[in-house]
Design brief:
Strand order of the largest sheet: 1-2-3
Largest sheet: 3 strands, antiparallel
Bound molecules: acetyl coenzyme *A
Strand content: 5-15%
Order of helices and strands: EEEHEEEHHHHHHHHHHHHHHHHH
Shape: globular
Structural class: mainly alpha
Helix content: 40-55%
Number of helices: 18
């Protein structure tokens, strides 16, 4: 196989080296293209652009394969827990017992928020979307740790990682408590990560609260499945913002904003809203599928389609099985789950979806599990944040340590007006 490619332009030849990844993915190295030829590349949405070399996560979208640090997602979902998976993503290897215990203890040790942060939650309106609170509070965290957030200092990086992993669940639970007008419940460091989060979410000071182990197990599974997904919109945002060498809190806050959008992590909320709309309307699933296909209708089927997967999303497969178990245990027969399965059947047997290789993605069934757990719709993307956090951290750290990192700064093809002279306001027609 050839290890270079030639681009002929205007009598010049540019020889691009072909780079090959561990799994034989191939890319043209065009780093010197503009300097040699004056040309840039045009690739809206970065559909063909490799922005980094990364050793964190591998996806084969054609075959529906997802691996964190080489380990298949199915094995991690079955055998690992969220803290161990986070360690794996951030440090590159599965931990020893001692390493895992230290990691757990360090995270437990940092779960409290400074009391000075409480008024921040009070300042938001009751109906504030919790993703806005998550992003604002993550940015605000930086103001409490200004002496320890230098992105080039390994000790600062380490403590910032523990603080983010430990405090974001507390922030999420406080945002929820604020929205329902209940007192904030402080972290319990005797509890495990997921149990502690559920306790902060659902306990009230007036009475004891027992975390349902099956709910905790289902949440752990969802967190693992969301933990990383290579260079998606929010991760690329974290890397781009971080490439300016701003502190990690600011970079993660930007990633949270990117994840909020309905084309990305906000799709889990959108899916359940659509299922409710179908349930409460006179139309059937087929007419919603017809709307999704209609180019004159902006409606798209949320939770369907993916930039990379052209096959069943392996996470969706695992989540669908879990939804079956968890929903029947927690709520019995859920009409929304039945509508979702019917929608999937209708879509997957429709030529439009088959030809475009549109399958359910991670967001299609996850919202139904969150709903069965008793979470309100706008908290669904917040759960995605907690899951994706270790992935963002791992990718941010890889970016910081990579000698090839430069500040992210795409080019453009200018398409506006040519040079013209300023016209005084009174002389404008
Ligand atoms: N419903 C109907 N048609 C769709 C859908 C959908 N959900 N998704 C894609 N299509 C169609 C597009 O209209 C396009 O059709 P065309 O070729 O006739 O123009 C074709 O399939 C290709 O889709 P693109 O939009 O070009 O794919 P892209 O890679 O740019 O977008 C995305 C991917 C954003 C995920 C898209 O599939 C979508 O909007 N899905 C719904 C939102 C969603 O579920 N987002 C979560 C994704 S997973 C995650 O981010 C965690």
């Amino acid at each position: 196989m050839s290890d270079s490619a030639r681009i002929e332009f205007d009598g010049q030849t540019f020889e691009a080296e072909v780079l090959t990844g561990t799994e034989d993915e191939r890319a043209l190295d065009i780093r010197k293209l503009r300097a040699s030829t004056g040309l840039i590349t045009y690739d809206p949405g970065y559909v063909n652009t490799g922005s980094v070399r990364s050793a964190v996560t591998f996806i084969d979208g054609e075959q529906g394969i997802l691996r964190y640090r080489g380990y298949p997602i199915e094995q991690l979902a079955e055998h690992s827990d969220f803290i161990e998976t986070s360690y794996l993503l951030i440090h590159g290897e599965l931990p020893t017992t001692e390493q895992l215990e230290t990691f757990r203890q360090q995270i437990i040790h940092h779960t409290l928020l400074r009391e000075d942060m409480r008024p921040l939650f009070d300042a938001f309106p009751r109906d504030a979307h919790p993703m806005a609170i998550m992003s604002a509070a993550t940015s605000a965290l930086s103001t409490f740790y200004q002496d320890h957030y230098d992105p080039r200092d390994p000790d600062d990086i380490q403590v910032s990682i523990y603080r983010l992993m430990a405090k974001l669940p507390t922030v999420a639970a406080f945002a929820y408590k604020k929205s329902i007008g209940q007192p904030y419940v402080y972290p319990q460091n005797s509890m495990r990560f997921t149990e502690n989060f559920l306790h902060m979410m659902f306990a009230v000071p007036a009475e004891p609260y027992q975390v349902d182990p099956e709910v905790a197990e289902a949440l752990t599974l969802l967190l693992i499945l969301h933990a990383d997904h290579e260079q998606n919109c929010s991760t690329s945002t974290v890397r781009l913002v971080g490439s300016s060498q701003v502190n990690i809190y600011a970079a993660i806050a930007a990633g949270i904003s990117a994840l909020w959008g309905p084309l990305h992590g906000g799709a889990n909320q959108d899916v359940v809203e659509t299922l409710l709309e179908i349930r409460d309307s006179d139309s059937d699933t087929a007419s919603f599928v017809a709307r999704a296909k209609d180019k004159n209708d902006p409606f798209r089927l949320p939770g369907f389609g993916h930039r990379v997967y052209k096959n069943y999303d392996p996470r969706a497969k695992i989540i669908k099985e879990a939804a079956d178990r968890v929903i029947s245990k927690l709520v019995g027969d859920d009409p929304l789950f039945a509508i979702a399965r019917e929608l999937e059947d209708v879509a997957l047997s429709d030529d439009y979806f088959v030809e475009r290789k549109l399958y359910p993605n991670v967001d299609f069934y996850s919202g139904l599990i969150y709903r069965a757990m008793g979470l309100p719709l706008d908290m669904f993307p917040v759960l995605f944040v907690l899951g994706r956090l270790p992935g963002w951290i791992a990718q941010w750290r890889e970016m910081i340590d990579d000698p090839e990192t430069r500040i992210g700064r795409p080019r453009q093809i200018y398409d506006g007006a040519g040079e013209r002279d300023y016209v005084a306001i009174g002389d404008r027609g």
